[in-house]
């Protein structure tokens, strides 16, 4: 009848024990997750296994790399790809007002779109124009974040879900980089692609996801972590050295501390991962040390973007030594949020926007030239992304936040020389305008754009919905701009 | 007899305590109906009026109290005050957006043109609450909130929680040196 304390106490102890175990396990998992982030360089491969010996230069035949070039701030792609046929240009000139590029300045692109319109590139991009003509560049019209395919009627009636916080910088950057705009951010599509393809990398000591532009949403994965390097060098432990010098003694002491046996599991894990991170960072620094083999390709270029792409080329050059058959890179150039002073009054083909476009054109051209010197141009695809497009009309001397935008895909595997997707109807308040200022409702989703790239990279058709859970809502999981897709 | 004394003493003591408590005890105030859920969908808040607490939180009052109209929001009363300056104006505007966020945290700040943002602030929102009175003197004929030089402010959306506010300054032209701005966060672009 009476509950015996003998029966009660063990139960309570068990309860408390279970609680403590749960709390400890949670803490342990959390701590290990943090440690994993700290040691992204060691995220795959056993530290006991050496990297595959290899040489710099031409990549293995089954090597592929994706380079995301993010135009942070929202590129005004209305002046990147411009209609040049008489009637559409007239519509463009009227709609853009003070932002219209003179027709004579535009760089005409061969061919017409299926609807018969003809387009040209911004005059500040002669290098990109030449690459387009050579079939190394494809353009994609009116891409943007979508939850479902959306028409103007649906947008106006709000009868389909829309990406939350359209026209907001940070939110749209996240949506572009995650490709899942209708859910809270958990991972980037580059990170998810890396998770799926990392198995192709064997014995790699360095993460396949490398950023030359700091932390980003694009490369956030579940098992693969992004690893940041500088534009000119790989971060390494300062004050370290060898031998009996002060730095050498310091390094030896640190090594002793990190290799010492600890009673505490956390201390042991922390020390082990820290040592791996330091060792692998030093290893990467050694591999990419010395004079760059791409000095001539990047000669006369000293912009931050050119330096970022230069470093990516150097990392691709040593992919064999790093044991990597797949790499995902992230680069970024800011300054595109041009609400004011977008171009020079009286000389509209120059100004802030032209300077940025020229930087992109020259840097991409140099990057491609560098890859050609090691015969890697067919195995590396570079693509642009941006917060959003910008209003077709002007606020006076700039443009404001909008939605759909045009993008650039570069590489030897690209079916270049064409404009893919559907360019918008440039009528203000027309069928593609979400408002009254030329906010183009995207006709191609980020999902379709990204899936086409992921498919080329090696993600199987059955795995595509894992990376792009909303892809099934859209008509074209493959837009056809990649040669092998 | 002893059997009666002990219970008797007990009764007296308890009665004494009760008397003391009875004298000090005041009845609880009448219960105020709970406010409707904030971030409610548009049109769901018509049952009550709203007022703004000192913290900027809208507190709904029951429909029965409609006889007392909600007080005019004073959050932006000092805007464009000649005795003040543009920095103070921008700070006031930022406080309005903070008040908005207090009430619409999930939905985030209103996004759109000055006209659309002003419409939201003047009552076109799920709570139909005017954070800024629709007849505020800083609102022009187009429904835009203007700075002290009569140029519409530029509401630059950084994220759903962060609004950068810009004034074109005395020259009434954006992108020049006399511009003033309230930037709550370092920009990532």
Question: Structural class of the helices, strands and pairings of chain B?
Answer: alpha+beta
Largest sheet of chain A: 9 strands, mixed
- Shape summary of chain B: elongated
Strand order of the main beta sheet of chain B, please? 3-4-5
- SS summary, helix count of chain A: 13
| Overall mean confidence score, pLDDT of chain B | 77
- What CATH architecture label of chain A applies? 3-Layer(aba) Sandwich
Task: Give the amount of beta strand of chain A, in percent.
Answer: 5-15%
How many beta strands in the DSSP annotation of chain B?
5
Helix content of chain B: 25-40%
Work out the largest interface and the residue count of each chain.
A-B, 26 and 17 residues
Number of helical segments with 4 or more residues of chain B: 3
User: Can you write the helix and strand succession of chain A as a string?
Assistant: HEEHEEHEHHHEEHHHHEHEEEEHH
User: What top-tier CATH class of the domain at 49-60 and 73-182 in chain B fits best?
Assistant: Alpha Beta
Oligomer: heterodimer
In one word, what is the shape of chain A? globular
In the CATH hierarchy, the third-tier topology of chain A is known as Alkaline Phosphatase, subunit A
User: Uncertain segments of chain A of ≥5 residues (pLDDT<50)?
Assistant: 1-10, 15-54
